Amino acid sequence: MSSICGLLWRDGRPVEATQIGRMIESLAHWGPDATGAWCDGRVGFGHLALWSTPEARLERNPWRLDRASVVLTADARIDNRDDLMRDLGLGNPGGEVITDAELIVHAYLKWETGCAERLLGDFAFALWDARVRRLFCARDPMGMRPFFYFLDDRRFLFGSQVRAIFTDPEVPQDLNPLNLAMGLAGLQTFDDQTAFQAVRSLEPATALCLDERGFRSWKYWRLELTREIRFARDDDYVDAFEEILQRAVDARLRTGGRVGFMLSGGLDASTSLALALRGGRAPLEHCSAFSWALREDDDWWVPDERPFIEAFLRENPIDHHYVISDPARVFDVPDEVRRHGNGPEWRIDYCQMVPTLAEARRRGVRVILNGTGGDETASYAAYDHVLACLLRGDWPALRAEMTARAETSGRSPGRTLAGLIRPLLQPKRWRTPFNFQWTCRRLCERVADLSERGIPLPQQLADSIGLVDHVRNVVRPRLPGAWRAPLRADQIYILTQTHVISDQVNAWNYAASYGIEFRSPFLDRRVVEYAIAVPPRQHSYANCRRRLLRRLALRRLPAKISQRLDKSVTLPDLARGLAENEAALRERMARWRTAASIRRFVDLDRLESNLQRVVKAAKERSPEWTPGLPLCRGILLAIYLEDAEGRSFGFLPGR
């Protein structure tokens, strides 16, 4: 994991070394191992390295290929190295190691701006081709590495974090009300919008080019709605899935040091760790696992993950550490998060993530594999199964679903069938029959009635920015042909238009502050493409959800985990933290009422009402959590605005 930054003067003036130096200084927390800078005429690049692969130790970024007049600065881990070296004719008979940066440059020399689609892995890079005076930038398909930029008639600035761009005092730092409102409403979609009106985010699977013809950007990769994989036997799908997921895990084990793993009691992280330990791929003595849990004598959070985690550890005696939840620090935002974010912090689990990263750093871990994306790829997106069966005329699958649900519920087959079909006959649902359409409809309803949903966004602000119209016209998914494959359409929508990727960028900010790189095997391009293309019944059949992953888990995990049907959540523990810190939170809210910048974006009356409801539910051990997430997002936004009051968002020394 590295951090990159750079500047191109479009008006032809030369880049000064001090300009790149300021950008590098603003990102100093990203580069514990090495820094590099390069300037030539109107272009300058910076690079800060965290060596997380063996080859990275040999890179000297920005990387220059003088004979071709090409310079690259990259935050990249390339996973298809062998295939690329073969296709590019890059043998190493002398035993010289070819770095990932070299592979990207040689891929560009052969395929030019079409090179990004040939790369597998996590990457964000900028490349200057002096021969044609072209700046070419690209970001990986799932957006695992961040890339922000600012563009006007005079300059193009980019960086792994927004603060590098704000080292130029002429870049406007006005907040983006629409982006903040979307975040406060829990509608984080992944487009090019950021918390600042002037700064854009390069979208996942997108490349951009800036040359004599001007600026242009394009999508170089998309998930295909019509592609379908077929095998003769049902078990063949599991075999192929295991092979692809194993390759994704193996690629993420390429590191020069100790490897860490997030371990829960669920299917995703446990399967990832089991495949990593399989056959000694990751030697036990070089691995550590980290789990979130309560104190052993604490029964607040039910079901606790400990019994499932312990079942895994009995078969895999890995170095393991529980990270104990501390409700007292629920809104004690650490300096690492406050200083280095690209806007408000919307994740509410940082009170668990931050101590996990601190413990991992103490153990010498530089890379952590997690199960992020497992829910969305393999797959909780099987809610449209009944509708899909009806549209395809798949009567055996519909019969199996009806029979299995009847056995589970104790109802007659006829009543069960009526229960399956009745929701689809409702007028509202029939106009938006697919789950991704229904989800979007509910999002529209959410922002149309902020009070009912408990969203602490001032109605006047929502009206002034046209929030409802924006959700209806811009956020609404458009997937032609979705009726042919509703399950697949739902998965594509979840993976490309919802919180999955934005969560990754936020986690990246945490990790960068501790010199740690997150890696997510389930968001490997090959895994995602395969999971999308398999027939629907591989994900859901006969009332068995997550069927593909569950059958793989039966091979690799203890039965206690593989046959588990429930899922633990940390929200009750968070509710306790809110209840135990009620007085301190009310004191903060009273202070926030004197700040115009906070009152503009946060409805403090609704925030206090939400707090009262959550505290009451927590004290009664009630499952009432409806206002909890809006409450947390409102508090986090207010904390961010309070921190930023009266100072630059760039947080530069001396400013």
Overview of the structural elements:
The protein has 655 residues and is an alpha+beta fold. The protein folds into three domains: 209 residues, 4-Layer Sandwich (Glutamine Phosphoribosylpyrophosphate, subunit 1, domain 1); 210 residues, Rossmann fold; 74 residues. The protein is built from 29 helices and 19 strands. Strands 2-3-1-9-8-10 form a six-stranded antiparallel sheet. A hairpin with a 2-residue loop joins β18 and β19. The radius of gyration is 25 Å and the shape is globular.
What's the short version?
With 655 residues, the protein is of the alpha+beta class.
Give a topology summary.
Layout (H helix, E strand, L loop, with lengths): L1 E8 L7 H10 L7 E7 L2 E7 L13 E3 L4 E9 L2 H8 L11 H12 L9 E9 L4 E6 L8 E4 L3 E5 L2 H4 L11 H8 L15 E2 L4 E6 L2 E6 L14 H19 L5 E5 L4 H11 L9 E7 L12 H10 L3 E6 L10 H6 L9 H13 L2 E5 L4 H4 L7 H8 L2 H15 L3 H9 L5 H5 L3 H14 L1 H4 L5 H6 L2 H9 L10 H12 L1 H15 L3 E3 L5 H9 L6 E2 L2 E2 L1 H10 L2 H4 L8 H10 L1 H11 L3 H6 L2 H16 L8 H17 L11
Parallel strand pairs: 13-14, 13-16, 14-15, 16-17
Antiparallel strand pairs: 1-3, 1-9, 2-3, 4-5, 5-6, 6-7, 7-11, 8-9, 8-10, 11-12, 18-19
Helix pairs in contact: 2-3, 6-7, 6-22, 6-23, 7-23, 12-13, 13-14, 16-19, 25-28, 26-28, 28-29
